[in-house]
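Whiteboard transcription, Tuesday session. T.W. wrote the C-alpha coordinates on the left side:
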Protein backbone atom coordinates (compact mmCIF):
# COMPACT_ATOMS: atom_id res chain seq x y z
CA UNK A 1 0.00 0.00 0.00
CA UNK A 2 1.39 3.41 -1.01
CA UNK A 3 1.94 5.96 1.74
CA UNK A 4 -0.15 8.32 -0.39
CA UNK A 5 -3.24 6.30 0.53
CA UNK A 6 -4.60 6.08 4.06
CA UNK A 7 -7.31 3.47 3.32
CA UNK A 8 -7.44 0.76 0.69
CA UNK A 9 -9.92 -2.04 0.01
CA UNK A 10 -9.14 -4.85 -2.41
CA UNK A 11 -11.73 -7.33 -3.72
CA UNK A 12 -14.12 -6.36 -0.93
CA UNK A 13 -17.29 -8.46 -0.95
CA UNK A 14 -20.24 -9.10 1.37
CA UNK A 15 -22.70 -11.87 0.72
CA UNK A 16 -26.03 -12.35 2.49
CA UNK A 17 -27.62 -15.77 1.80
CA UNK A 18 -26.34 -15.88 -1.75
CA UNK A 19 -26.97 -12.20 -2.50
CA UNK A 20 -23.96 -9.91 -2.96
CA UNK A 21 -24.60 -6.52 -1.36
CA UNK A 22 -20.98 -5.59 -2.17
CA UNK A 23 -18.91 -7.46 -4.74
CA UNK A 24 -15.22 -7.14 -5.66
CA UNK A 25 -14.93 -3.49 -4.66
CA UNK A 26 -11.50 -1.90 -4.99
CA UNK A 27 -11.22 1.48 -3.28
CA UNK A 28 -8.27 3.72 -2.47
CA UNK A 29 -8.64 6.88 -0.38
CA UNK A 30 -5.81 9.36 -0.77
CA UNK A 31 -4.40 10.93 2.37
CA UNK A 32 -5.58 14.51 3.09
CA UNK A 33 -8.41 14.38 0.57
CA UNK A 34 -12.21 14.38 0.65
CA UNK A 35 -13.48 11.25 -1.10
CA UNK A 36 -17.16 10.52 -1.78
CA UNK A 37 -18.90 7.19 -2.11
CA UNK A 38 -22.12 7.69 -4.07
CA UNK A 39 -24.71 5.66 -5.95
CA UNK A 40 -28.46 5.18 -6.38
CA UNK A 41 -30.56 3.64 -3.61
CA UNK A 42 -29.61 0.01 -3.03
CA UNK A 43 -26.16 0.44 -4.57
CA UNK A 44 -24.39 -0.98 -1.50
CA UNK A 45 -23.00 2.27 -0.06
CA UNK A 46 -24.03 1.64 3.55
CA UNK A 47 -22.87 -1.98 3.46
CA UNK A 48 -19.52 -0.86 2.05
CA UNK A 49 -19.24 1.79 4.77
CA UNK A 50 -20.02 -0.81 7.44
CA UNK A 51 -17.36 -3.11 6.03
CA UNK A 52 -14.72 -0.39 5.93
CA UNK A 53 -15.44 0.50 9.57
CA UNK A 54 -15.60 -3.21 10.65
CA UNK A 55 -19.23 -3.07 11.79
CA UNK A 56 -19.60 -5.92 9.28
CA UNK A 57 -17.06 -8.60 8.43
CA UNK A 58 -16.37 -9.16 4.71
CA UNK A 59 -17.12 -12.42 2.95
CA UNK A 60 -13.95 -11.82 0.92
CA UNK A 61 -11.31 -9.18 0.38
CA UNK A 62 -8.91 -7.10 2.43
CA UNK A 63 -9.02 -3.66 4.04
CA UNK A 64 -5.82 -1.79 4.87
CA UNK A 65 -5.71 1.31 7.06
CA UNK A 66 -2.37 3.07 7.53
CA UNK A 67 -0.54 0.01 6.27
CA UNK A 68 -2.29 -2.50 8.56
CA UNK A 69 -4.97 -5.05 7.67
CA UNK A 70 -8.13 -4.27 9.64
CA UNK A 71 -10.84 -6.56 8.27
CA UNK A 72 -10.72 -8.63 11.48
CA UNK A 73 -10.57 -5.61 13.77
CA UNK A 74 -13.47 -3.89 15.57
CA UNK A 75 -14.87 -0.32 15.62
CA UNK A 76 -13.52 0.56 19.08
CA UNK A 77 -10.00 -0.50 18.17
CA UNK A 78 -10.20 1.43 14.90
CA UNK A 79 -11.35 4.56 16.71
CA UNK A 80 -8.31 4.34 18.97
CA UNK A 81 -6.02 3.92 15.96
CA UNK A 82 -7.37 7.00 14.17
CA UNK A 83 -10.48 6.05 12.15
CA UNK A 84 -13.80 7.46 13.40
CA UNK A 85 -17.22 7.44 11.74
CA UNK A 86 -20.48 9.29 12.12
CA UNK A 87 -23.97 7.95 11.47
CA UNK A 88 -27.04 9.16 9.59
CA UNK A 89 -28.83 9.74 12.90
CA UNK A 90 -27.19 12.33 15.13
CA UNK A 91 -25.48 10.63 18.08
CA UNK A 92 -24.99 12.99 21.02
CA UNK A 93 -25.76 12.79 24.73
CA UNK A 94 -29.03 14.72 24.87
CA UNK A 95 -29.09 15.45 28.59
CA UNK A 96 -25.51 16.71 28.63
CA UNK A 97 -24.59 20.24 27.60
CA UNK A 98 -22.65 21.03 24.45
CA UNK A 99 -19.56 21.63 26.59
CA UNK A 100 -19.97 18.32 28.42
CA UNK A 101 -20.39 16.38 25.18
CA UNK A 102 -17.12 17.76 23.80
CA UNK A 103 -15.31 17.24 27.08
CA UNK A 104 -16.33 13.56 27.18
CA UNK A 105 -14.77 13.13 23.74
CA UNK A 106 -11.60 14.91 24.84
CA UNK A 107 -11.44 12.73 27.93
CA UNK A 108 -10.85 9.70 25.69
CA UNK A 109 -7.35 10.96 24.93
CA UNK A 110 -6.38 11.38 28.60
CA UNK A 111 -5.22 8.88 31.20
CA UNK A 112 -8.72 9.12 32.74
CA UNK A 113 -10.38 7.75 29.60
CA UNK A 114 -14.10 7.30 30.38
CA UNK A 115 -13.83 7.28 34.17
CA UNK A 116 -17.15 9.01 34.78
CA UNK A 117 -16.97 8.54 38.56
CA UNK A 118 -14.17 11.09 38.93
CA UNK A 119 -15.00 14.54 40.25
CA UNK A 120 -15.83 17.14 37.63
CA UNK A 121 -13.01 19.36 38.86
CA UNK A 122 -10.51 16.74 37.66
CA UNK A 123 -11.62 17.43 34.07
CA UNK A 124 -11.29 21.22 34.20
CA UNK A 125 -7.96 20.99 32.40
CA UNK A 126 -9.94 20.01 29.28
CA UNK A 127 -12.16 23.10 29.33
CA UNK A 128 -9.92 25.40 27.29
CA UNK A 129 -9.63 22.95 24.39
CA UNK A 130 -13.35 22.15 24.60
CA UNK A 131 -14.18 25.86 24.28
CA UNK A 132 -11.86 26.19 21.28
CA UNK A 133 -13.62 23.33 19.51
CA UNK A 134 -17.10 24.56 20.37
CA UNK A 135 -16.26 28.05 19.08
CA UNK A 136 -14.74 26.56 15.93
CA UNK A 137 -18.12 25.15 14.87
CA UNK A 138 -20.10 28.22 15.91
CA UNK A 139 -21.75 26.70 18.96
CA UNK A 140 -20.29 29.11 21.53
CA UNK A 141 -23.72 30.63 22.31
CA UNK A 142 -25.04 27.18 23.18
CA UNK A 143 -22.11 25.95 25.26
CA UNK A 144 -24.25 25.35 28.36
CA UNK A 145 -27.34 24.20 26.45
CA UNK A 146 -28.40 20.54 26.72
CA UNK A 147 -27.77 18.85 23.39
CA UNK A 148 -31.41 17.70 23.22
CA UNK A 149 -32.50 21.34 22.91
CA UNK A 150 -30.34 22.09 19.86
CA UNK A 151 -31.74 22.28 16.35
CA UNK A 152 -31.00 19.27 14.15
CA UNK A 153 -28.32 21.16 12.22
CA UNK A 154 -26.56 22.19 15.45
CA UNK A 155 -26.71 18.61 16.72
CA UNK A 156 -24.91 17.51 13.57
CA UNK A 157 -22.30 20.22 14.15
CA UNK A 158 -21.88 19.01 17.74
CA UNK A 159 -21.52 15.42 16.58
CA UNK A 160 -18.83 16.49 14.14
CA UNK A 161 -16.90 18.45 16.74
CA UNK A 162 -16.95 15.51 19.17
CA UNK A 163 -15.51 13.45 16.33
CA UNK A 164 -12.75 16.03 15.82
CA UNK A 165 -12.01 15.95 19.55
CA UNK A 166 -10.90 12.34 19.16
CA UNK A 167 -8.16 13.62 16.80
CA UNK A 168 -8.76 11.04 14.05
CA UNK A 169 -6.68 10.82 10.90
CA UNK A 170 -9.65 9.52 8.90
CA UNK A 171 -13.27 10.58 9.39
CA UNK A 172 -16.08 8.65 7.71
CA UNK A 173 -19.31 10.63 7.38
CA UNK A 174 -22.52 8.75 6.62
CA UNK A 175 -24.86 11.18 4.84
CA UNK A 176 -23.92 14.28 6.85
CA UNK A 177 -26.64 16.33 5.14
CA UNK A 178 -29.44 13.84 5.89
CA UNK A 179 -32.37 15.54 7.59
CA UNK A 180 -30.91 19.04 7.35
CA UNK A 181 -33.06 21.95 6.26
CA UNK A 182 -31.93 23.99 3.27
CA UNK A 183 -30.64 26.75 5.56
CA UNK A 184 -28.39 24.31 7.45
CA UNK A 185 -26.65 22.70 4.47
CA UNK A 186 -24.35 25.63 3.69
CA UNK A 187 -23.01 26.01 7.26
CA UNK A 188 -22.45 22.26 7.63
CA UNK A 189 -20.62 22.19 4.27
CA UNK A 190 -18.35 24.99 5.49
CA UNK A 191 -17.75 23.09 8.71
CA UNK A 192 -16.77 19.90 6.85
CA UNK A 193 -14.41 21.91 4.61
CA UNK A 194 -12.79 23.38 7.73
CA UNK A 195 -12.53 19.97 9.42
CA UNK A 196 -10.98 18.44 6.27
CA UNK A 197 -7.85 20.59 6.51
CA UNK A 198 -5.04 18.28 7.56
CA UNK A 199 -7.35 15.26 7.71
CA UNK A 200 -8.89 12.71 5.36
CA UNK A 201 -12.65 12.38 4.92
CA UNK A 202 -14.62 9.60 3.24
CA UNK A 203 -18.30 10.38 2.96
CA UNK A 204 -21.53 8.87 1.69
CA UNK A 205 -23.80 11.64 0.46
CA UNK A 206 -26.80 12.05 -1.87
CA UNK A 207 -26.62 15.82 -2.34
CA UNK A 208 -24.71 16.29 -5.59
CA UNK A 209 -24.07 19.99 -4.97
CA UNK A 210 -22.29 19.03 -1.75
CA UNK A 211 -20.25 16.38 -3.59
CA UNK A 212 -19.31 18.82 -6.36
CA UNK A 213 -18.10 21.50 -3.95
CA UNK A 214 -16.39 19.40 -1.28
CA UNK A 215 -14.95 16.27 -2.84
CA UNK A 216 -11.64 15.71 -4.59
CA UNK A 217 -12.56 12.24 -5.82
CA UNK A 218 -15.79 10.28 -6.26
CA UNK A 219 -16.41 6.53 -6.40
CA UNK A 220 -19.77 5.46 -7.83
CA UNK A 221 -21.36 2.16 -6.80
CA UNK A 222 -24.15 0.32 -8.59
CA UNK A 223 -25.51 -3.06 -7.51
CA UNK A 224 -22.66 -3.42 -5.06
CA UNK A 225 -19.88 -2.90 -7.61
CA UNK A 226 -17.73 0.06 -8.64
CA UNK A 227 -19.30 1.66 -11.71
CA UNK A 228 -16.96 4.62 -12.11
CA UNK A 229 -14.34 6.68 -10.29
CA UNK A 230 -12.79 10.08 -10.85
CA UNK A 231 -13.39 13.76 -10.20
CA UNK A 232 -16.99 14.98 -9.92
CA UNK A 233 -16.76 16.43 -13.42
CA UNK A 234 -15.63 13.07 -14.79
CA UNK A 235 -18.22 10.88 -13.09
CA UNK A 236 -21.11 13.31 -13.57
CA UNK A 237 -20.56 13.23 -17.34
CA UNK A 238 -20.11 9.45 -17.49
CA UNK A 239 -23.04 7.98 -19.52
CA UNK A 240 -23.18 4.87 -17.31
CA UNK A 241 -23.43 6.99 -14.17
CA UNK A 242 -26.12 9.20 -15.69
CA UNK A 243 -28.13 6.14 -16.70
CA UNK A 244 -27.72 4.51 -13.27
CA UNK A 245 -29.06 7.59 -11.50
CA UNK A 246 -31.84 8.98 -13.62
CA UNK A 247 -32.03 7.04 -16.87
CA UNK A 248 -30.59 9.74 -19.08
CA UNK A 249 -30.84 13.06 -17.21
CA UNK A 250 -27.60 14.75 -16.08
CA UNK A 251 -26.40 13.91 -12.56
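and on the right, the sequence the group agreed on:
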Amino acid sequence: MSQDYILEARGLSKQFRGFYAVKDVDLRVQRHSVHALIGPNGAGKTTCFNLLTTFLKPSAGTIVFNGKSIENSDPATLACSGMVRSFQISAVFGQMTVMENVRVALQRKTRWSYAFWRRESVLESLDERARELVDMVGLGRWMQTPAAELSYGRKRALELVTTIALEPELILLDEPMAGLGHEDIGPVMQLIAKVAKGRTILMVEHNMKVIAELCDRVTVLQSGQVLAEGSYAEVSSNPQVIDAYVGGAHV
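Someone added at the bottom: The two ends are 32 Å apart (CA to CA).
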